[in-house]
Fold each of these.
Amino acid sequence: MKFQLYPDGTLLDLRYDNYFWLDYVPACYAKKHGLVEEQAKTLILQKYASVAGSLSWYCVDYWSKTLLLDIAALKAEISHLIAIHPGIFEFLTKLNGIRKRRVLLSNAHRSSISIKMEQTGLDGYVERIISAHDLGIPKEHGNFWDQLQTIEPFDPNHTVLIDDSLSVLHSARSYGIRNIIAITKPDSQKPANLIAEFMAVTHCQELLKTINIKV
């Protein structure tokens, strides 16, 4: 059995990403271009919306070019805000103890992943990290799973996918992945999401007592 895990929101607190994209980037953009911060935020949110659901939305290089900001450097500036959800190391260690392959699947750019792994050491708790940029397609797209099979073969009936994105979970279910778990509180500073269509937990920590269930 294989566990496919999404780092941001599932293993890592999404607060860092939300703050970075919704507050820090607009503030830096406003300063660079001589704009009022609220005006900058409105412009940037429009730019975000124009590429939502595409790989560009997750691409550091795309946003550096579009916003004329060094996005990777800005991410590093506030890397101290990167945090892991409670019980994650224990959760991943227990998976290893029962011989489950742990694969991180992220839409994030490789440079973003590197910053987070350096800050947290999560890469030492998984067998492999795959970026959607390696495959040229985001996880929300149905073809992602076919592409994933070419580099990390998996049996949809014996794979567990844990993610906080409903669009990704729907895509995975349409592909045929049988065991899907949603994370309802990816951002520690926001209320939990109400999710009724998938098995759902607040954090992976809640799965520790049932982690030996066979699928």
Note: The first strand starts at residue 2 and ends at 5.
Amino acid sequence: MKPLSDIEVLDRPVWHSLGGPQRSLDVGQGAVRRLDPRFGPFAAVSPGAEDTLRDHMLGGEVWLVETDAFPAPQGLKVLREAPLLQMIAEGPIAAFDDPEIVPLGEADAAQMADLALATEPGPWAAQTWRYGQFHGVRINGRLAAMAGERMRPTANLAEVSGVCTWPEFRGQGLAARLIRKVMAGMAARGEVPYLHSYATNASAIRLYESLGFRARRAMVATLLGPE
């Protein structure tokens, strides 16, 4: 079988991340790869073994990010389907220094969770911020916006994720600055940034295009839960 290229693995980002650079976060077994639920609800399954997914729900729901909608296996039901646009950065990425952008860590976890759960940039769990480095901007002591890193399907690809801003601080260019900071960090490590946007979020897609991302392909996020 012809080995997959770095770009082709993006067709199954969860599968390759949990079987590759982030395998330490995989709590699945056999044909199922399941992210430790403390980090998030993502899972992937080997083709033909879909019915085994119900044994890896760990009492909750799971998100699958694939090229097509994921039919509900036996014992599960589809709770939500969300069309996504997967985008990848092209061209050189310049170093970026912004004195107002600060690294975030454990002391910021509660404010990060409040922001993510209120604005819903994607699934968020107690340890999601530990995926990789997150950065934020504070205004009057409050975390106004943040962006960070998530899935790494190969050592050379890294996902920009968790990009969100409180509504009252939008329109100030905070997201663009934070994404540039995250991208610069990835590029310094020899990684190519990629990301997922909800396909209906035209303003976000325009922002990503202005930062050097191009559309790679359509994807679908499927949320499954018990029947």
Note: The chain has a mean pLDDT of 95.
